[in-house]
Input
Amino acid sequence: MREKIDCFLPCSDLDSARDMVAQIKGSKTIQHIYLLVNEHLGELDGALCDCEQIVVNDLTSSATIAAIAENAKADYALLQIRPREILMAKGTLDRMLRIASDSDAAMIYADHNDLIDGKLQPHPVIDYQIGSIRDDFDLGSLILVKTSLLNAFASQAGENAYKFAAVYALRLFLSREGRIFHINERLYTEQETDTRASGEKQFDYVNPRNRKVQIEMEHAATAHLAAIGAKIDPSFYRTPDFNEQEFDVEASVVIPVYNREKTICDAVNSALSQKTKFKFNVIVVDNHSTDGTTELLRGFHDERLIHIIPERYDLGIGGCWNTAIHDDHCGRFAVQLDSDDLYSSPKTLQQIVDAFYKQNAAMVIGSYRMCDFDLNTLPPGLIDHAEWTDENGPNNALRINGLGAPRAFFTPLLRQVGFPNTSYGEDYALGLIFSRHYRIGRIFTELYLCRRWGGNSDAALSIEKVNANNLYKDQLRSLEIMARQQMLQGKQELINDSPLMRFFNRQLEKWDDARNRYQDLRNVKTRELAVGTSTMKVQWNPARIVSTGAKIDKQTLAERPCFLCEQNRPKEQVKKSIDGQYELLVNPFPILPIHFTIPSVKHEPQLIRNSYSEIHKLLTEYPSMMVFYNGPKCGASAPDHAHFQGGTSGVLPLQMAWQRLSRNLKPILNLNDEEGISLIEEYPCPALLIHSKSEYSDEQLFIRLYEALPLPEGEPEPMMNIVSWRHDTDYYSVVFPRKKHRPDCYYKEGDEQFIISPGALDMSGFIVTPRKEDFERITPEIALRILNEVSLQPDELQQVIAKLQATQHLTPNSQHLTQKEPNVTVGIVSGERISFSLNKPYVAKGEVITGDQVVEFSEGGILWRGTQYRNLTFTPQSKDASFSLNDVTIGVNFHWERKETQTFEGTLRIVVEADKIVAINELPVEKYLTSVISSEMSSTSSVEFLKAHAVISRSWLLAQIEKRRQHESGGDNFFSFTKSDNEFIRWYDREDHTIFDVCADDHCQRYQGITRANNTHVEEAISQTRGQVLMYGDEICDARFSKCCGGVTEEFQYCWEDTPKPYLVSFQDPYCNTNDKHILSQVLNDFDQETPDFYRWEVKYTKAEVSELVNRKLKDDFGEIVDLIPVERGKSGRIWKLKIVGTKKTFTIGKELEIRRALSESHLYSSAFDVEKTDDGFILHGKGWGHGVGLCQIGAAVMGEQGHPYDDILLFYYRGAEIKRLYN
Output
């Protein structure tokens, strides 16, 4: 124990130093004493003669620590880290050294006494733990450090040259390298100089004067977290789904209160006076107040105030919060207001809710001002926590003792995590947990007034209470650090952080019957059956007799109310909307541990042909789910109402054996190297696999399989079950082709009867038996016989396989034929703000809506009625429902461009595209065509001409829908331009549209909703040609058309991509040269007739005019244009490469539309022109209007007037094509 310590003491005056040195010299543990001085004090004498001086600028910098380490030679170094007068009892250093040696600690610190105004007061400190990383952790003024570790720290300190944070960084380093040991003994006394109350000291870290200090402290803390594997990277944060559950109100202000008769009315009135665009309420949890608080609350008569007195008497503030958030009245967001405090303005609540959506945050924290009861500002004033950054806030949160106020939470996540039942630190605990996975939004302007008065619980606390609070928060930090370490090491968390699971758990909380059945399911008996190389599982589930024994004949279905329709469901059953078309429900009669029913919003028959793609969408949205489908006579107990089911993935024997089964697949049909249809050879009954990676491919493959399956007599569709799941980017659908509803044994009696009605789960090897006797008696042979009896027989299966193989050579386009009329999505209008009116009831986000609406682009989302969404769907509730969109632009970039209010039928979708929002109308194809042809054609048109136009518009539309699907699946990767230093060739086609099928303007087809759909001749033409399209072989024709070809039609490749279409060829058109106003009025509708002389036309430009025009339109500097040289023409004479020669630049452009746009303010009539140079400019001699490809509308109108039938008109313009009907 001899000479083991070197002492390093701050010295501001020699007298104080002499007293301290005199105390220390009494110990034989001392080797050297060093005085840390600002400047050299000269030669020392007396008690200080043996001391050495080290000149430093401060006690907190890396330079000071390095100087100490350089001089420390003994085993331990005693550091006085605060410049205070110290009184040390005899034996203090001996005690510290002995404990350091016995514990082998990296650092030692001890309790002490404070001398305040001449009075001695005990100053205990708390134990150090992994979460004690606060920079203001109280170590006292003396620490004993192992010198070897001090030197190790100093040797790497050069990496971070701290001015203020070196001692803090040293402590963190020592905690990583060894134990920091607390001596629970008062070993010395120090003169306390900071006598402020605890309520004032606690805000030092947010004082702007300390900002430079805090930045360094944050750096040191972050480096420490990285070193111990607990640093969070916010770039991996999850995005909350604010629509994962439905709520009656958007927000709830939560006020826990106990005995606050002086302040509670102010708080409640502050909350109720909030002005918002959404519904909110105020939930006050009155924790059994014994003063007048309860009576005051009962005096409010506002239905928005929810006054709750909990049943329990042991609740802290956290427990009161839990009571509020689990109450059915709680809104989507739960917002804090303490019973002492006030909101700063009536806009506070709106600002907080807006911040959730704008910042995609799961928790939002604002800023508050400290004030007295009269609202006078108290130090330190505004607490805005400006130290928080999006990049490092979740790490820095572990260094500081608070996060700010008011605090607000996304309720479903808050319910899942829950508050600790304490009255201190409960909010901080939640902030740390939320910041592990989700962004915490910040509002740095004042929202909240924190009133300090004599009754506050934290205005001035004893040292014991401060220690208790700090110990608890250190424990919270310890838990969080350990959780983060495990998370970053890849360990799965106990709580499933899934919106789907939160929805499921919330439903069970509120629905006793369903919860009891799921609990009973845990005890349901199961047994295994070995069937060949496969294993089946049998479940005895008496509750499923409801489904297994269901009668599904027409009379029974007609007599019973549909249990999937919303009006007939139990009141406890909640829903989650899926894209406005389906609803997610918890199945109250479960087979699986998690079991959902997913019915269509509309009551329509259980058919799969046109709804199969919904399975892929569900798996995309919920990748951990397994989805299954039961056909009308294949296990569906509600064949009159379309629905899917979903649930726990990986528990079916089919899935559990997939690794083995997938090794023995027999390919039948391949779309490409990865996607196709296979036979699962080793499965006990016929099973066909669809393996896909995109929705488009998935649907294409299913359609081929669907078309290959036999159609039983009297049935609307082939019989089948489907089980689908996803693994990473691979989507698997196993289709079980059926021929029989139920096995014969279902209808037998006595021992021969087995009440088993196979559905998708049974076909997947999970056989459900409602009767105990069936569960006990079923054998592998019986199970195998049942599954194969209801399946296709081997010869029938071979016929299916042969049909599939025969389609291998067909293009995907040819297989997208449908027996049901498809829908089309039309982009109508876009912008930062869209206003519209719902003329009849629509449903959006589970609520019936009518009247005027406004949606706005806001922070990457859609702001509607004060709430932000990723997308919005307004679904009509009646066939005649319509909506009106304001400021719809028509004639974009044409000379007749203008804005109108237009009215549309069908569904309205609002989606985000880049930095704007887009209104999309979804409606049946035939309704769309009625509007298009009414907009394009006159009511005076001949019926045969209108019928021809109906077929080409339908053909073009369905071809574009197909192209978009191929584009989404990566099936058309061509570029729509080529560019070099002296040439730019571009064509304009539908690949411009990625979020809808077609736009509403002339770029695609002119669509103006029911605003123009009032032409009875058009309706007749549409009806008579319903479902008819032009086909070339197995391909739907891309049926282009233009106003006037000018006497010669053009070929496809000269206007669009270099892929000739055999049916779009160039030929002489003898019909389109007419001046007959009656015929022209059939094509030139309204404003189109503002355009005269288009069969042959002439445009004159001066050099100045054409130079200004070209430079502006091409956004380049050509100088003066001196020549326009046609480089290449199509077969009709249309220029598709034009060389522009200027005094500064020569450049070639194409194709035809690029040329037309460059040489006109809107569009030149066509690119079929000759160039005549004049002394001062150019004359363009042109012919025709439009690209000239396909049908010439003027020519077709003439043919119609001459009595040609529509099929003659079509086959004249589309050579070699055929007219076929795709749907009835």
Remarks:
- DSSP finds 36 helices and 55 strands in the chain.
- The first helix runs from residue 14 to 25.
- Residues 812-818 have pLDDT under 50 and may be disordered.
